[in-house]
Amino acid sequence: MASSVPAIGWAQSSDATIRGQGPADVDVVAKNTATGATRRTHTDKAGSYALVGLPPGTYQVDAGPGTARTVTVTVASVFTLNLSAQQAAAATSAEANAQNLGGVTVSATTLQEVKTSEVGTLVSMRQIETTPAASRNFLEFADTVPGMVFTRDANGNTSLRSGAQASSNINVYIDGVGQKNYVLPGGTTGQNNSQGNPFPQLAVAEYKVITSNYKAEYDQLSSAAITAETKSGTNQFHGDVFGSFTNGPMRAKTPSEEATGKKVDSHEKDYGFDFGGPLLKDKAHFYIAYEGKEFDSPITVVPAGNSAYWPNLPQNVKNELGPASLPFKENNWFGKVDWEPTDRDRIEVSGKYRDETAITGIGEQQTANTALNTHNTDKRFDIRWDHSTDSWFNRLQATYEDAYYTPTPINTGVGAQYTAYNNQNQPLIVDGASPLSFQNKGQKGPAISDDFTLNDVQWHGDHVIKMGVKFKSVKLTAQDAGDTNALATYAVGPDGTESIPYKIQFGAPVPGQSPVATSRDRQFGTYIQDDWQVDDHWTFNIGVRWDYEETPSYLNYVTPASVIAAINSQDPNAPTGQTYAQTLAKGGVNINNYISTGNNRKAQKNEIQPRLGFSNDLFGDEEHVIFGGWGRSYDRNLYESLQIEQTKSVLSQPTINFNTPLVPCAAGPTCLAWNPAYLSIPALQALVANSTAGKEVDMINNNLKAPYSDQLSIGMRNKIGDWNTSIAFVNIKSHDGIVYTLGNRYPNGSFWQNGSQPWSFGIPGYGSLIIGNNGLKTKTNQLLLSVEKPYTDDSHWSASFAYTYTNAVQNNDNQDPTDQYAFDYETIGKYPFTDAALAKHRFVATGSLDGPWGFVFGSKLTLATPIPSLGLQCGWATPTGVDNGTVNGGGCLNFSIQPPGTGRFLVGGKVFGYRDLDLQATKNFKIWGNFNGYVRIDLLNAFNWNNYVDYIQTIGTNGQVTRRQVIYNPTGDITGYPRTLKVTAGINF
Fold first, then answer.
1. Nearest CA to 221 among 232, 234, 229, 211?
2. Taking CA 140 as the corner, what is the angle to CA 797 and CA 357, rounded to the nearest 5 degrees?
3. Whole-angstrom Cα distance, residue 223 to residue 211?
4. Would you say 624 and 636 are in contact if contact means Cβ atoms under 8 Å apart?
5. Of 160, 316, 623, 688, which one has the greatest count of Cβ atoms within 10 A?
6. What 3-state class would DSSP assign to 368?
7. Residue 341 backbone zone (phi > 0: left; psi -120 to 50: alpha; other: beta)
C-alpha cells in the first residue's frame, strides 16, 4: 500500500480529525467560522465519515438539513462527532463555549478527545492567557501536565524535562515541523543555556503535550512530544500590543543578597505585538508577531562539591563569591501567509527569526571571570501545500533551518580552577575561562516531507491510515575550543590551597587546519499508522516507523596514523615488549573497537519502532475510557558528542601536569617541574610545538547506536459532571545514551592503584585516552493523575490539578542529565543505579475566574519534594582497587541523597523542597469601538519561599555519616524567582 500511494509522507501533524456517524451517502462539510476555510468528505453506506487535516479552530459541520453543529477542535487530536437532526437540536441549546471572532460571538461546543491511547494533555489558549507566567516562554505552561517539569534555573535559563531523561530527549513540533537540536542539548534549537523563548508566545494558539505512547508519525525523540499550532489571520483584522516590566525594587532579595546586605540591580522587560487579517476574504490571510526581551537577572556565585574545603580557597576567590547579574536581550519574529485557492487546497508560507545576546557562564562553581559573550540565532522557513478529496488528504511540506550558538570568553589568558586534592573530577569553583569556552555550534539545511492519509477505509470497522517518508539534509557545525585561553587547576587540601597548579589545560591548534568540524547529516524515515475504530467501544492505534541517519564526519573519520602507531608502541611504564594496546587489553579495552579506517563504521539500519495503543470506551458514551499502549522511540546522538575525534585532533586541548605535594606525578613529557613562565599561553604552546605531548585523544566506538526508550502505559479517563479525570501508570526505560569514560590503564591493566586513577598513564607521547560508548540508562515509573474542570462561558471559571509520583534511577552520579562524561568508575557498566535528580512527589494546581467589572483572575500553586543531590564522596572507605556498587575502587562513595525539606504548605512539617504560589489579576476595559485595553499584575512566589538549588554536602569519611549528609545552601542560588511583582499593559482589537 505504501508503495502505491501518489506521494511521500512525513509530518508530526498539529491538525485535528473529526470522525463519526451521519446520514448514509451524503457530503459532510466543515467550514471554519473565522477564516472561511472549507473541508469536505463523504459518508459511506453505513454513515461513517472522517474529516482529517483540520487546523484547530471553530467549525460549522453539516451533513445535510437539520444536522449542522458548531464545534471547536483542538490541536493534534481526534474527536467523535455524530451528526443527526436529533443530536444537532439537542446540542443547539447546550453549546458550551462562546467564541469571540472579530466582534462576532459564535456559540460552539469544544469537543473533548477521550479515545486516544496517548498519555497527554492539551494546553489551551485560556490557560496560556490566564495562568500566572514568570516568562514569555510558551513551554512554561507544559508544567501543568503530569510528568512534565519546566524550570527556570538560577542563571535564568529555561528548560522542559519529562521523567528522568534529559531535556535534549524532547522534541517540539510547531505547525508539524520538528524543532530538534541536532548539535546541542536543550531539545529544541536555541534552548541550550538560554534565557530566551523558542517561539513568540503571542503566535501560539494552543499546544498538546504527549508524555508517552505517541503515534508513529512522531520522530527524533525518546521523551515527551510537544505539538503546537500557530495563529493565523482571519476574515477580521485583529492585533495585540503589550509590554511588561519588573525591576529590583519590585522584587524581594535573593538569599545571597540577604546574606551580604547588597541588592544587585536587575530588571526584566517583555514587549511585542501581533497583527493579522484578510488578504482576500475566505481565501487568503496574513499574520505577523514580534516579541522582545531585555533582562538583567540576579545570580549567586557559590562553590560546589565537598564543603569542608570551601574555607581553604584563596581569599581572592572568596572575594568573587556572592551576588552578580546576567544581562540578556532577545528579538523574536514570526510571520505567516495562508491561501486557499479552492475548497480542496491550502497553501501556507511561514518564517521565524530569533536573535539573542547574553552574558553567561556565571553562577554555581563559576565566578564572574568565567563570563562568556553568547550569541544565539535561530531562523526557519516553511512552505506547505495541503490537498484533500473525499477519501484522502495529502500534505507536501518543505523547510529550511539555520540555527547557531556562539559563546566566546570575555576574559582571555590563563584562568584558575580549584578542586579537592582527593577528588580531581569535580571542581570546587572555576575562576577563569577554559579553552573549551569558545564554541561555534549549529545546524542549517533543507528538508522535504509529505504526509498522506486515507480516511475512508472500512474493514471490520473504520480506519484512518497515515503513511509516508521524510528526507532531510542538514549541515552540522561544531567548534569545541579556542587557543586564547588556558585553565590552571590548583589542589585544595586540609591545610589550604597549593601555590602552584598541578595541571594546566590549553588550546594547541594544528597550523593550516580548521578547528571547525562540519558534517552533511542525512536523515531518512518512514512510517505507517492505522487509527482503527472497531466500534463505539474499541479503538486501536497501530503503527511502526523506521529511521536512518548518516553522519559522515563520524562514519568516514580516519584515526590518525600517528595515534595508532603510538598505541601500538612500547608502553614506557610496562615491561619491555608490552605495547600500550596490550596494556589496554589487559584492562578490558579492545582498542580495535575504536580505531576507524574510514570504512569500518556503518550507519545503524535497525531502528524499527513499533507503536501500539488501544482505548476501550466502556459504555460507548465517552465518559469512562480505559487506554494504554507500548512503543519504542529512537532519538539522535548529539553532534557535539560525535565530532570530538575530529576537533580534538585539529585543535587539541593538551594538559601538562606539574609535580606538587598534594598531586604528585612521575617526571616525563607531560609531567614537568613548575616554572612561572608557564602562566603564558605561548610558552605552553611552545612546549608541545611539533609534539603531541599532553594532547588528549578521544575515540568513539565503531558500532555506536542511537539512544532509545521503551514506553509502557495503562490508564483510565472519566467524565464526572463537568470534570474530566485521568489516571495513568507509565513505565519508561531509556537505553544507549552515549557516555565518555577514561580509557587510560596502568601497565598491569588496572584502573585503580593506591586509590588513584591512571590519569598520567595515557597514550605514549600523547595525553589521556577518552573513549565514547553507549551505556547511559534510566528507569522511570510514574503515576500520573489529573483532574480538570474546563472553562466554559456559562460557568466563568476553570481549574486543574496535576499530581506526579516518580520513582526513577540512573547509572551515573551526575546531577545534570545532559552531561555525558563519567570518570568516577572504570566503565559505565560499573556505575550503580542511584536515584535520579527528580522530585518524588510533584503537585501543580491552576485556576481561573472571570470576576466582575472586566476582571479576570488566575492562580498557580506548585509543590514538590526535595530533589536528591548526586555526587561522589572520597575518603569514604579504604581503597580496594575494585569498583563495587556504590563505592568505587578509590574508596569514594557514589551517593544520591535527598536533603530535608525547607518548609510546609499550610499544615505539616518541612516536607517540600519547592513551593511556589503565583497570582495574577487582569482588568479589561473598552477604549473605543473594537479597541480594548487591559492592565495585568502578576505576583510571582507570593509567599517569597526560597527554592534552593545549591547543596552543602558533608557526607562523612571512613564510613561514618554525619547527621545531615546533604542540606540546601541557605545563601546559595534559587530556582524561579524571589517574590516579584510584574506589571503588564496592552491593547487588542
1. 211
2. 140
3. 7
4. no
5. 160
6. helix
7. alpha
Q: Which positions ≥6 away from 249 have C-beta within 8 Å?
A: none
Q: Counting every residue, how long is the chain?
A: 989
The CA-atom distances, in angstroms, between 165 and each of 387, 428, 433, 832 are 38, 26, 29, 17
Residue type, 116: T
For residues 655 and 480, the answer to whether their CB atoms sit within 8 Å is no
Does the CA dihedral 739-741-743-747 come out positive or negative?
Answer: negative
C-alpha–C-alpha distance, residues 703 and 735, integer Å: 15
Contacts 24+ apart (CB under 8 A), 93-96: 95/70, 96/792, 96/793, 96/794
Query: Which contiguous run of DSSP H or E holds residue 902?
Result: none
Alpha helices (runs of H) in 728-866, residue ranges in sequence order: none
**Mean pLDDT of successive 10-residue stretches along the chain, which has 989 residues:** 34 81 95 94 94 94 93 93 75 52 61 92 94 93 96 89 94 94 93 92 95 94 95 96 96 92 92 97 97 92 90 94 92 98 96 96 91 96 96 96 96 95 90 93 97 94 96 96 94 95 92 90 97 96 97 96 96 96 97 97 97 97 97 96 92 91 89 93 90 92 97 97 97 97 97 94 94 97 97 94 98 91 96 97 98 96 97 94 96 95 91 97 94 97 96 90 90 94 97
Per the structure block, which three cell numbers stand in for 493?
587540601
- The CA distances from residue 57 to 20, 36, 75, 575, 740, in Å, are 18, 11, 9, 76, 48
Could you tell me which residues are beta bridge partners of residue 806?
782
Phi, then psi, of 351 in degrees rounded to 5: -150, 150
Look-up: residue for cell 587540601? 493
For residue 794, list its beta bridge partners: none
Distance from C-alpha of 689 to C-alpha of 669, rounded to nearest angstrom: 13
The span from the CA of 248 to the CA of 265, in Å, is: 6
For residues 577 and 570, the answer to whether their CB atoms sit within 8 Å is yes
Q: What distance in Å separates the CA atoms of residue 414 and residue 484, rounded to the nearest whole number?
A: 9
Residue 180 dihedral angles phi and psi, to the nearest 5°: -60, 135
CA 490 from centroid of its chain's CA atoms: 34
d(CA 509, CA 62): 70
Beta strand 496-497 with 503-506: parallel, antiparallel or unpaired?
Answer: unpaired
Give dist(CA 327, CA 394) in Å, integer.
46
Specify the 3-state DSSP secondary structure of 830: helix
Phi first, then psi, for residue 679 (nearest 5°) are: -85, 10
Q: 86: buried, middle or exposed (CB in 10 Å: 19+, 13-18, 0-12)? A: exposed
**What is the residue-wise DSSP string for 470-509?**
EEEEEEEEEE---SSEEEEEEEEETTEE-SS-SEEEE-EE
Please report the beta strands in 515-562, taking only residues with DSSP state E, as ranges in sequence order: 517-533, 538-550
Burial of residue 817, with CB atoms counted within 10 A of its CB: 0-12 exposed, 13-18 middle, 19 or more buried: buried
* Residue type at position 40: R
d(C-alpha 566, C-alpha 108), whole Å? 74
CB proximity list for 847: less than 8 A, separation 6 or greater: 797, 798, 799, 800, 858, 859
Cβ proximity of 839 and 869 under 8 Å: no
C-alpha cell at 78: 481526534
Question: Quick one: which H or E segment has residue 770?
Answer: strand 769-789
- In the chain, what is the straight-line distance between the N-terminal and C-terminal CA atoms, in Å? 49
Residues in contact with 676: Cβ distance below 8 Å, sequence separation at least 6, in sequence order: none
Q: ∠ CA(726), CA(730), CA(734), 5° rounding?
A: 150
Cβ–Cβ < 8 Å for 799, 846: yes
Tell me the β-bridge partners of 803.
785, 843
